[in-house]
Write a structure and sequence with these properties.
Family: Belongs to the peptidase M24B family.
Shape: globular
CATH class of the largest domain: Alpha Beta
Pfam families: Creatinase_N (PF01321), Creatinase_N_2 (PF16189), Peptidase_M24 (PF00557), Peptidase_M24_C (PF16188)
GO cellular component, one term: cytoplasm
Number of domains: 3
CATH topology of the largest domain: Creatine Amidinohydrolase
Largest sheet: 6 strands, mixed
Distance between the termini: 39 Å
Number of strands: 27
Protein name: Aminopeptidase P family protein
GO molecular function, one term: metal ion binding
CATH superfamily of the largest domain: Creatinase/methionine aminopeptidase superfamily
Radius of gyration: 25 Å
Length: 611
Amino acid sequence: MFQNFDAPSRAHPIKDRLVALRAHLDRAGLQGFIVPHADEYQGEYIPAAAERLAWLTGFTGSAGAAIVLGEEAAVFVDGRYTLQVRDQVDVDDFTPEDLIGNPPHQWLKDKLSTGQRIGYDPRLLTLAEARRFEAACKAAGAELVALEENPIDAIWTDRPLPPLSQVMQQPDELAGESADDKIRRMQAVLADKGVDAAILAQSDSIAWLFNIRGADVPHNPVVLSYALLKRDERPTLYVDGRKLSNAIRDQLAERADIKEERAFLTDLAGLGDEGRRVLVDPQTTPALFARTLTDARGVLVEGADPVVLPKARKNAIELDGTRRAHKRDGAAMTRFLAWLDANGANGTETEISVARKLEAFRAEAGEADGSPLLEISFDTISGAGPDGAIVHYRVNEATDRKLEASTLYLVDSGAQYRDGTTDITRTIAIGTPSAEMRDRFTRVLKGHIALATARFPRGTTGAQLDTLARHALWQAGLDFDHGTGHGVGVFLSVHEGPVRISKAGNLPPEPGMILSNEPGYYKTGAYGIRIENLIVVTPPAAIAGGDREMLGFETITLAPIDRKLIDVALLSPAEKTWMDAYHARVRDALAPSLEGADLAFLIAATQPLGA
């Protein structure tokens, strides 16, 4: 298994840790400390050695923060984790707060007194985050203090060792472009921006640029490292040498200088001493790096990570590989759905047992296709009944629930194959669904179809598209508290920037980008519904009778959607046509890979609505 289901220990000495941290802060003359969910590489998913927030609070979600003051402490989470945080965190120790509605810097500003000193680790806050906290402290007459050592590291006596996975090359035939060509292309971008160099602090940007992959972070095939991209010189990759075989080192040395990570700050200061202009993305670059550069009198030029957009715009080879991965994954998913249809209501299957079964089907499909499953793309969200209403629910042995008749089961999962990354959610009726379940499911489906079939001009933002996915829910007084879509890499991070389809999505999708389409609905204590396919932004094309070319979406995920949950009367003729056409495409694509009961299930599950 690529995931475990061990229950978090309820004996975690959170109170003792909080006392120890406050004592450490008191000795350092500090009245508070900021604890983000972040590592030194600013990734969403982080290795065990960087799980400081979870160690201190018990909260294990993929986004959040905590602030510890002398007499009170708070943990901040977004709408995905409002239920989970109260299950995992003792509210006598940490008060749950809304990460979006009452962000940490605002909360801190309201709590501070004149003269107080608040510590932070400048490796773990980005430049933009540090500035927000600095402004909050200044407004309250307090001081934000960058610390040389993280106080949690000083008291975390059994902290895991940093990861040391081996680096591997992503072949050009799968990447679609050589690392040399990518480097030259990015150097041209630096020349256009009038800068001498750029800091690359995001691991997936580095993986894409150098066509390398690793396993330093669970489920994300990245190498924890830093890089300096230089306009007129070879780039430098800063990576622990123990991760490099001789063969990989030789390959990388053909196009880059290779140094240990400890040399990064020294080289950055050297650029500053030379008065170089260095591009820094304030949203992704640790505050320490910006401070090191400016302290050495370098010129900090703020702008987006130059790799992010080119990485998001997938080339034809990457898209072809991703389509192959989704066909392979769709066959595995359909075998799983067939098995679940036959066994889901027998009263013995649980959230863990079905998650294990799905992973086994994926492994078998990869082996049969000659493209083995290398990882899952995130911990499977396997939620039965009320657990499905917890948006990012992660089952463990203590919460494992049986699947029961007349309930819904939600499974959100994905895989990492060498040629592509998948992410799919299906909601399945176990037995006979209620009328309310079918109504809510169909409204979610209408939103899913509205986004899948959207045609839109260049420049349309993710926020504008997001409205399409919510309209049918809004008309019934319903909504969901997460984004509708995120970017997805190619054998890279399952959550990829910079474009997202959400209420806060201010950037426009561009041709070649892979995004998710995942509206949902969640009834606390009862059930959850989400329908997720991955979609590719298609190039501008003419519409008959129109006067402007429009972008659109191609759906690349291939798996049946539960027809038992569809209230056909709520669908328009166009929506029924899309649903039938999608199922026909699923059937034609997957039938050659299935046989016996699996094939029979596929044929039945993809019949036209009303048939």
